[in-house]
Amino acid sequence: MTTPTEQSTQHAPGLEALEARLRQDLAWLEIPAKSWLPAQHHEGQPVLEVAIIGGGMAGLTVATALKHLGIAAVVFDRSPAGYEGPWVTTARMETLRSPKQLTGPALGLPALTFRAWFEAQFGLQAWDELDKIPRTQWMDYLRWYRKVNHLQILNEHHVLQVIPRTDKLVELDIETPNGRNKVFARRVVIASGRDGLGRAHLPEIAYTLPRHLWAHSSDELDYNTLKGKRVGLVGAGASAMDSAATALEAGAASVDLLIRRTDLPRINKGKGSGNPGLTHGHLNLPDAWKWQIRHYINAQQVPPPHGSTLRVSKHANARFNFGCPLERIEVLGDGLRVHTPKGSFDFDFLILSTGFKIDWSARPEYALLAPHVRAWKDRFTAPEGQADQELADSPDLGPVFEFQEKHPGECVGLSRIHCFCYPAALTHGTVSGDIPAISDGAKRLAQGMASLFYSEDVEHHYAKIQAYEEPELFGDEWVPAPAPLPGKA
Ligand SMILES: Cc1cc2nc3c(=O)[nH]c(=O)nc-3n(C[C@H](O)[C@H](O)[C@H](O)COP(=O)(O)OP(=O)(O)OC[C@H]3O[C@@H](n4cnc5c(N)ncnc54)[C@H](O)[C@@H]3O)c2cc1C
Questions:
Q1: How far does residue 428's CA lie from ligand 1's centre (Å)?
Q2: 433 ligand 1 Cβ < 6 A
Q3: Residues 203-227, mean pLDDT to the nearest whole number
Q4: Tens of pLDDT along 273-308?
Q5: Does the CB atom of residue 54 touch ligand 1 within 6 A?
Q6: 3-class SS string, the chain
Q7: What is the pTM (predicted TM-score) of this model?
Q8: Cα of 231 from ligand 1 centre, angstroms
């Protein structure tokens, strides 16, 4: 007799078969292209064609898209192999927030999708029965993605400094397991995540509190230490629910959500905005429309997922306190008293789930670029009623996600550095962070880079065309007709 799991995997061809199919698909499509950039050396070492900072989903997708076009990228990530990004480190949701059928980093290849990977192992029935993708399984898929695309990823390599230069190279100073190393690349992609150009957004008051009494929801924290404690939680977004639920499941005595608004948003406008027009057309919208759309989505706020909210509300000791912005916080012994317009709350620990912000000062690795990067606020004035700090601080990028100089001529190497993380959204739309359109963004970046490399090296390519000598005809395929006799037609 077969068990339900056995029945469901009976029609699962397995990963080996999927990988064979992927190889076949790539062969049919003539992917990857042959390497075509001229080799370069500097200070006795090979110059990398592209260096990517960050081996999370965005970095992996760009590295693969570049490889398909015959451009070699080396990815540097400070995390241990297989632990890149938030999925098995700081994320606390049970499942992804996105629907399971999104094709994410697959770059248009059916055999590279999460669904293909899942069905290969567990079968179609299990796929039909799956509600949303379990968070840790998404990480397993990314680990497989990295393996089957044969990407060059150097883990435990922390990029300490990105140095734009005037000689068409970018230098990286990297802390490696074997000490400090210097590498040179023709172009660099910053794929360093949701907080890639900044940090957790914290209310000023947090900095005055003893550090052992609070955490941001994106901090690494053992939630078992909250057992028996009265926990306050500022915020009501997806991560707030994940943190609240994790604290409750770890045995917190109570969790009070302090919610500034008088109600939770119900509609995810960001999800509703997604269509191929936005993916491919946002970049070319007039500035005022870009701003208006992004500001509207920001102002409406994204509701926490249904399942994540139920994961909290099913606990009797979870309380949703609306209309409770922070007014003041007192330290009382080894706890905190939080004052709000609705009254005061005593907590043993406070979690701030207050999002992320662009703050170059929090990213010392970009200290040499930061003063030169043109932000939207440097050339665009928000229309009346649409002030938005996140948008104002967003980098004003070029069509290949490249940074642009605030004062032309002051940092000429800056445009060799490409921003492929969430802050690119105001210029490019949401194609550089979230799952839905990550392949579109990665292809845009890879194709744009191919074009930049080609025009930069045009003399080399022209010389190659001139030197190209592979004959199509050998001269023996025909016999020249004799000259016609005079008077004969
Ligand atoms: C909790 C959480 C849940 C999310 N859930 C969803 C979801 O369900 N659906 C969805 O579409 N999106 C979701 N997102 C948004 C987005 O998909 C994720 O943030 C995703 O991880 C973005 O991928 P990334 O490659 O841009 O960044 P990351 O996955 O964060 O990868 C960035 C990498 O850069 C490395 N790095 C950073 N700085 C350096 C440096 N100086 N040197 C070397 N390495 C460096 C880091 O180690 C990290 O591995 C979620 C985000 C979070 C935070």
A1: 18
A2: yes
A3: 96
A4: 889 999 999 999 999 999 999 999 999 999 999 999
A5: yes
A6: CCCHHHHHHCCCCCHHHHHHHHHHHHHHCCCCCCCCCCCCEECCEECEEEEEECCCHHHHHHHHHHHHCCCCEEEEECCCCCCCCCCCCCCCCCECCCCCCCCHHHCCCHHHCHHHHHHHHHHHHHHHHCCCCEHHHHHHHHHHHHHHCCCEEEECCEEEEEEECCCCCEEEEEEECCEEEEEEEEEEEECCCCCCCEEECCCHHHHHCCHHHEEECCCCCCHHHHCCCEEEEECCCHHHHHHHHHHHHCCCCEEEEECCCCCCCCCCHHHHHCCHHHHHHHHHCCHHHHHHHHHHHHHHCCCCCHHHHHHHHCCCCEEEECCCCCCEEEEECCEEEEEECCEEEEECEEEECCCEEECHHHCHHHCCCHHHECEHHHCCCCCCCCCCHHHHHCECCCCCCECCECCCCCCHHHHHEEECCHHHHHHHCCCCCCCCCHHHHHHHHHHHHHHHHHHHCHHHHHHHHHHCCCCCCCCCCCCCCCCCCCCCC
A7: 0.95
A8: 27
